[in-house]
Amino acid sequence: MSTKEVYIAIGIVAAITFGIRMFPLFFFSRRDTIPKIVRDLGNLLPYSMMALLVVYCLRTIKFDSLSGFMPLTIASLVTAGSYLWKRKSILSIVAGTAVYMILIQQVFL
Hints:
It comes from Aedoeadaptatus nemausensis. By secondary structure, the protein is mostly helical. The chain has helices spanning 3-28, 36-58, 66-86, 89-107.
């Protein structure tokens, strides 16, 4: 791809993303109440996305060696434990990522 084509592709993707994000604002701005299905989706989707991310992160776990599953298991427990302790998403994500990186780079070589 040439540089011009890359810029065109980036512009198209940006326009589509902007349109998708702005659609609910334009669609529901004239209504007094939001439909029940949209409210239900708004309550359900964050939990579904978190479950999807957990499955995505743990999909590569291998039980053939200790270094295949221990770093992921320990980091997952640290993430869940720190979230239950402080109820701060960013803190738990950073703590779990840091523990995982330390484990795979220093402990389980």
